[in-house]
Write a structure and sequence with these properties.
The chain is mainly alpha-helical. About 50% of the residues lie in helices and about 0% in strands. The chain is built from 22 helices and two strands. A two-stranded antiparallel ribbon has the order 1-2. Helix 1 packs across helix 3, helix 7 packs antiparallel against helix 17 and helix 16 crosses helix 18. It is globular and about 60 Å long.
């Protein structure tokens, strides 16, 4: 607990320093009235901004920096270059991972029992049917009829069980909303206030988020038609002052109190709506933060419909992916689970990578997958099939399991890699990977082999 608190405060200190640096560079206070466009001079008034922080910095904080802080028994970064030392630790089954603290993880047998509904004997949307497209169409039609019947009198446990098999796209918004008890009309006045604030005032993080949307939405073939909606969702979330207290695992980071801004005409900015934090939601956006909003553009085309679901989904699930805590299914336990699964299912790969040094560590490669929930790494449809199961099982644990499945799926080619750059190159493009077949193959490989020939599943990428 002490170590995790140190990480939270260290992260907050870093974010505060980066915010001050950005504010000084831009000569911009944390909050200011939005200036109206001034015709031909508009381009001259535009501020070229930059990202505040990258998730790689967070990875370094919870691995090497925390390890140095705690001095736990593990393979230190220097030991990674010593095959004999690394091998002796692996041979004694001691902690090999790079995470700075040793957290207990659920064994593979427990995960198989917990996610039994994913087993190949159950029909699943998001899994290619070996019997052909007609069989897939028949399953889709049956799932649509079942979903429509369940939505007549929504009952959360039944809808969650339904979501575990994949939700037909045309029912996804309704099913997710019912599972998460989203009332689309509950916060309309608050949303109107947020959107009005976007037009009237400018937080220093606004342009950072707009830059992020350009890089992670406009440049993505899956999401580029929805950039305006994604931007509106991201900006609205960042200005929602109740986000930190509504996140189910607690505030994702130590919120930064709004204080005097750097030199400006109005150093003591009057913060809108009584907001106390920078930004008001209490979460300083890291590079890729806007990607959380991208999949919701497939669920609704209007902000007033998409935002209540996005907000609830973020507070219950997505916030956990960057929450620095030892609470179950938050960032550090998810990383620990990933490392545990890779070490127990592919120890030869772990040893091979250990010989290359810390830059080839599995968690270094998988960390952004976990933090972003695979958005921007898998195709949009695969992300949505995965998130169906997140809703169905009411847990983000499957994101870490899928990261382990992706990594071990490439075990054979990893063994031929000679350098950390070789390893990274193997995972530069995950567009061909299919989320649910990989999960089934990882959790139920023996059953899947026995089931082949009669199953509706094919495992592959």
């Amino acid at each position: 607990v002490v170590a995790v608190q140190w990480v939270r405060w260290r992260w907050a200190s870093l974010l505060l320093r980066r915010l001050r640096e950005l504010s000084e560079e831009q000569q911009q206070p944390y909050l200011r009235p939005r200036a109206p466009p001034r015709g031909d001079d508009q381009d001259k008034e535009e501020v070229v901004t930059r990202h505040i922080v990258d998730v790689e910095r967070l990875h370094r904080l919870i691995t090497s920096e925390l390890a140095s802080r705690t001095n736990d028994v593990r393979v230190e970064a220097s030991d990674f270059s010593n095959p004999r030392a690394a091998g002796s630790l692996l041979g004694r089954n001691l902690w090999w991972g790079t995470l700075g603290v040793h957290l207990r993880s659920e064994p593979l047998e427990g995960l198989r029992a917990r996610y039994r509904a994913l087993a190949p004997e159950h029909p699943h949307l998001g899994v290619a049917d070996v019997r052909g497209s007609m069989a897939e169409a028949d399953l889709t039609e049956r799932r649509r009829a079942e979903g429509q019947a369940l939505l007549v009198n929504p009952y959360i446990p039944e809808l969650q069980a339904f979501a575990r098999g994949g939700v037909p796209p045309n029912f996804r918004q309704q099913v997710w909303s019912s599972c998460l008890s989203v009332d689309p009309n509950a916060r309309l006045k608050e949303l109107q206030s947020l959107t009005r604030g976007i037009c009237e005032s400018e937080w220093i993080t606004d342009d950072v988020l707009r830059l992020d949307v350009v890089e992670h939405c406009v440049n993505d073939v899956s999401y580029f038609p929805f950039d305006e909606l994604v931007e509106s969702l991201s900006l609205s979330l960042s200005r929602d002052a109740f986000i930190s207290e509504d996140c189910e695992a607690g505030p994702p980071q130590v919120p930064l109190l709004a204080g005097p801004a750097p030199p400006s005409e109005n150093a003591q900015a009057q913060f809108e709506g009584g907001a106390r934090f920078v930004p008001p939601c209490g979460v300083v956006p890291f590079k890729g933060f806007s990607s959380y909003a991208c999949p919701f553009a497939f669920l609704a085309d209007r902000l007033e419909v998409a935002y209540p679901l996005f907000r609830t989904f973020y507070c219950r699930y997505l916030s956990r992916l960057h929450t620095i805590s030892t609470e179950p299914s938050t960032l550090m336990p998810l990383c620990a689970l990933f490392e545990h699964l890779v070490s127990t299912t592919a120890p030869h790969v772990v040893f091979h990578l250990a010989e290359m040094g810390p830059d080839a560590a599995p968690l270094k490669i998988a960390f952004p997958w976990i933090v972003h929930g695979f958005v921007g790494y898998l195709r949009a449809d695969q992300v949505l099939w995965l998130w169906d199961r997140v809703v169905g099982f009411d847990s983000v644990q499957l994101i870490a399991v899928l990261a382990a499945a992706v990594f071990t799926f490439r075990s054979r080619v990893i063994m031929s890699a000679k350098t950390p750059d070789d390893v990274a190159m193997l995972f530069t493009n995950l567009a061909s990977f299919q989320a649910i077949p990989l999960l089934q193959g990882f959790l139920f490989s023996t059953e899947l082999a026995n089931f082949s020939g009669t199953s509706n599943t094919t495992c592959g990428a």
